[in-house]
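Lab notebook, bench 4. Still working through the backlog of constructs that have no structural model yet. Next entry is a single chain of 367 residues. Request: give me the structure tokens for it.
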Amino acid sequence: MLRAGIVGLPNVGKSTLFNAVTRTRKAEAANYPFCTIDPNVGIVTVPDPRLEELRKIAKTDVVIPAVIEFVDIAGLVKGASQGEGLGNKFLTHIREVDAIVQVVRCFEDDDIHHVSGSVDPVRDIEVINTELMLADLETVQRRRERVQKDVKRGDKSSVAEEAVLAKLEAALAAGRPALVAGLTPEEKQIAATFFLLSDKKTIFACNVREEDLATAHSNPYVKQVDEYVGTHLNCEEVVISAQIESDLVDLSEAEAKEFLEHLGVKESGIGALIRATYHLLGLRTFFTAGEKEVRAWTIHAGDLAAAAAGVIHSDFERGFIKAETVAYDDLVRGGSIAAARAAGVYRMEGREYLVQDGDVMLFKFAV
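Model written out:
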């Protein structure tokens, strides 16, 4: 299972957000640095309104959503790449995740200490990214030293690796993360073997006050994050209120809906964050739907029908014959499989079919 790590400076709301995302109280949330030391891990269901529509069509009460894993990582401070704070331990935990959710404080509160003494989201982002880049720069320089001998004797793979390392070193030294180093697709494949921290896909969670959630996009701090990450990092951001989300954990679905309506918002920011992280990880969903259950299955973007069948069971992939397939929108528009067939949108696909997000599938196989 792919993992997303929640990172940020101390006291920006990471652990509160983790508790909200996982609907638990596993992570201690306190007003002092490093209240999280060892990472907390939680399995998170991916909110998907399509499941309810499919449940109605299939006439079943059993719905199984897709899941991903979130990890709450200790707060980082300036100098982490040199061992400050939890230093190397923190960076190791980041290295073990597949994507990063960077929580950025976008609210003023005199009662909640900021490690830098004031609220400045762009500065906070740059502190974290600088530490990741400094750690990566050391990694790249050490690796360049190791491949020099093979480069001198003309080893082709080492020559290609050295060229990528040189590009990465130049970018990192100039203050640009590996993620935006301007590598070609082929170079990115080589760079992936270096497991660089600043090469991980990242989404930013702008943490605002409860009373600012409904009008968050007029918040000057959120505007700063939006402009900075869009211009310099080619990333996206999602607005959340970690404290509100944490409070919602203890409410029923009806109570939570009423509470959000009172605040003037239609949907929990957590749902948008989880879905955005799911897609950031390169994950997509196909469905199976029948009287027994409706279920969301997780695949990688670009997976073919046979590989999707293998997610359900290896026998399905090995003995794949065909995949009866209908797009979610076409099925809902018709209201039933029979109507989809009559409309000519119910298809038979082979093992090389590129599965689309939202496909509803039934696999035929023989072993």
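Notes after review: Confidence is low (pLDDT under 50) at residues 25-37. The radius of gyration is 23 Å. Flag for follow-up if needed.
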